[in-house]
Design goal:
Blueprint (H helix, E strand, L loop, with lengths): L2 H5 L3 H13 L3 H14 L4 H14 L2 H14 L4 H13 L3 H16 L2 H11 L3 H14 L4 H13 L3 H14 L4 H13 L3 H14 L4 H13 L4 H11 L6 H16 L3 H14 L4 H8 L8 H12 L5 H18 L2 H18 L4 H14 L2 H6 L10 E6 L5 H9 L4 E5 L3 H10 L19 H14 L10 E5 L7 H7 L4 E6 L2 H9 L14 H21 L4 E5 H6 L1 H11 L33 H4 L9 H7 L2 H4 L3
Parallel strand pairs: 1-3, 1-4, 2-3, 4-5
């Protein structure tokens, strides 16, 4: 922060100055102060309210109405705004508008003042004072459902999801028909990665109002989280029916396109992505989604439109990130590797600046895991857990080829492919605590305090909770979560007969593939910088060596390159390790019809190719720093 920034008046100080000037009837100076405030805080509702006061004092009714309505669009819980609007409309003979404003004012006056104050504070981003008001009020009236819901909203914004869930459940005990609170609960359950419970809430809401758009969207989101994509395709089409072009239409087209892509209906998916762009031409995520199909090449017109969209000065940062990665893929397909790398580097720099990745957390976590999970730890707990061989865990790094291995195994008649399941990571967070930025375990030593009965219960819980994703009732099912390499010790303890596969790709190819891939907004923060991805890869190798030492033979390493070079040999080795008979369908994995959610979804629907082995070499002139950062990991990954 510069000295000038430190000495600049705060938001509330500028508002107070403007208010003082108005009270002195120095209206032009007050309005000038508010204009200065708006330059830095355009969505501060009370500055627009104060502007309305100024225009009322100046006798400019149209300007006052415009200012007051601007304030209420941002914050509908401003009683003074509704009061002034009612009076202005009444004076101008606008009875309907006056009645509407008066009705809104009357509704606010029926609420406890604390809820009105807290709502207003929250609308202006003043979360801490709003929370203080609500907690103080709930100490006196703990059953007020409006206050419980509002505090739950604050907890949700602060990512205190467990408390938010508890507050909403308390509100619904008091008022089971409080549908807004039930909708909020469904959204919190989705964020807590319990989609089946979220879908149950959506079903209750839809029983009350089967055509409510927000209830339908919650139901669809829960289905998607459960891996049930087929029904949402028609549901999104229903929501789009008759909807005018605009932001909501663009969003719905995106969601529908994603479901179509996952179900392998690529041509229809492309059409819906294009429709999203027709509704919103600078929609970065739609451009990136087209690029992320991997198999689609942009036209020259597309590239020109991408360049124009990315150059817009008023673009939101997230859109700019998506567009940079999409343009990088477009230029890569054209063979302009220098331009492509510049785009990837630009997108990575923006994404890294927005993220919260802290490399030191990974190093500390690996050290703690190695200290806890010793040979003696496992020897003392031999025979613990649930001896069910059904789960097959595929882990490693993103972009390592794990989706290919999943698709091969899911083509076997005895194996069901599910999705990247989050249960193991969630259990680790419950047991060990989780770093707020990356979710890694904080205190794995807590596992040592569990009894054999508790360990077995955790294994049984995994089998029970993942049953939701098993639709085909096959003997084996896959959990393809790359980050589970952190949790091999936990997996072995609670599920000692589960299969664990470590899919490994040559370091330069794997790390480069991560650098050119944009993941979800909160996922894989280590992939957006050369030093970060190299350090992560080295930590991964180190931890996998530890698992091999303390659990010899427990994890099968599956080199991606070996499978590409000798598909049948690689498949036979893989099936033999899993105790499965060879089936030719595993060689024709690209013909298997199933939903695939990862960035490799379209690639695994084609016969295996060798282009992924050497693709990074096009960028070799810019990858010297990556090679240097990897150091001996470049050759150590096979050892």
């Amino acid at each position: 922060m510069t000295v000038a920034e430190a000495e600049a008046p705060t938001r509330d100080a500028l508002l107070q100055t403007a208010r003082g000037l108005r009270q002195q009837r120095r209206i032009p100076e007050a309005l000038a102060t508010l204009a200065r405030l708006e330059a830095t805080h355009p969505r501060f509702s009370r500055l627009h309210q104060e502007r309305g006061h100024c225009h009322v004092m100046a006798g400019d009714a149209p300007a006052a109405v415009a200012a007051l309505e601007a304030a209420l669009r941002l914050n509908p819980t401003l009683p003074a705004c509704w009061d002034m609007l009612e009076q202005i409309h009444a004076m101008r003979g606008e009875a309907d508008q006056a009645a509407r404003a008066g009705g809104q004012l009357a509704r606010l006056r029926q609420l406890p003042p604390e809820i009105v104050v807290a709502s207003s504070l929250l609308a202006d981003g003043d979360r801490a004072p709003a929370e203080a008001v609500l907690r103080d009020y709930l100490d006196r009236d703990g059953d007020n459902v409006g206050a419980l819901r509002l505090l739950a909203r604050i907890c949700t914004e602060a990512e205190a999801l467990e408390e938010a869930e508890g507050l909403l459940e308390r509100a619904l005990v008091q008022a089971p028909d409080y549908h807004a609170a039930r909708l909020d609960l469904g959204m919190v359950l989705l964020q807590r990665q319990t989609p089946l419970a979220a879908r149950h809430q959506a079903e209750r809401l839809l029983a009350h109002d089967p055509d409510h758009r927000d209830y339908l969207k919650l139901f669809a989101a829960a289905c998607v989280a459960l891996g049930d994509h087929a029904p949402v395709i028609d549901l999104y089409a229903r929501l789009l029916d008759g909807l005018a072009p605009g932001p909501e239409a663009a969003e719905l087209r995106m969601w529908r396109a994603n479901a179509l892509k996952i179900m392998g209906r690529q041509a229809e998916a492309v059409a819906d992505y294009r429709a999203a762009l027709a509704a919103r031409p600078d929609y970065g995520v739609a451009w990136f989604s087209l690029a992320n199909l991997k198999t689609l090449r942009f036209s020259q017109d597309d590239v020109a439109r991408l360049r124009v969209a990315e150059a817009r000065p008023d673009l939101q940062t997230l859109d700019r990130i998506y567009l940079a990665f999409a343009l990088g893929k477009a230029l890569e397909d054209e063979g302009d590797y220098a331009g492509s790398w510049a785009c990837y580097a630009r997108g990575n720099a923006l994404r890294r600046a927005e993220g919260r990745h802290r490399p030191e957390v990974e190093k500390t976590c690996a050290a703690r895991l190695k200290a806890v999970f010793s040979p003696a730890f496992f020897a003392d707990r031999a025979g613990w857990g649930v001896a069910d061989p059904a789960p097959v865990f595929i882990l490693g790094l993103p972009r390592s080829g794990s989706t290919l291995i999943e698709q091969i195994l899911a083509s076997h008649s005895a194996v069901e492919g599910t999705r990247e399941l989050t249960e193991i990571g969630r259990y680790a967070a419950e047991l060990f605590g989780a770093d707020p930025d990356c979710g890694l375990p904080l205190k794995p030593e807590a596992l040592g305090r569990l009894s054999a009965e508790q360990v077995r219960a955790l294994g049984a819980r995994f089998l029970d909770e993942t049953r939701t994703y098993r639709r085909l009732e096959r003997p084996f099912f896959i959990d393809k979560m790359p980050n589970n390499f952190w949790h091999v010790g936990l997996i072995h303890l609670i599920l000692p007969r589960a299969t664990i596969l470590d899919v490994r790709r040559e370091p330069m190819a794997c790390c480069f593939s991560n650098l050119k891939q944009l993941f979800g907004t909160t996922h894989h923060g280590f992939t957006y910088g050369v030093e970060d991805i190299a350090r992560h890869y080295r930590t991964y190798l180190d931890l996998m060596r530890h698992w091999d030492t303390v659990l010899p033979g427990r994890v099968l390493r599956v080199p991606y390159e070996d499978v590409v070079e000798d598909l049948e040999g690689g498949v036979r080795r893989l099936l033999a390790h899993c105790g499965l008979a060879f089936e030719p369908a595993c060689l024709a994995f690209h013909e298997t019809r199933r939903g695939v959610r990862t960035p490799s979804s379209e690639q695994v629907r084609r016969p295996i190719g060798r282009e992924g082995l050497t693709q990074w070499r096009h960028y070799e002139p810019w990858l010297g720093p990556l090679r240097d950062a990897l150091g001996d990991a470049v050759i150590a990954d096979r050892t």
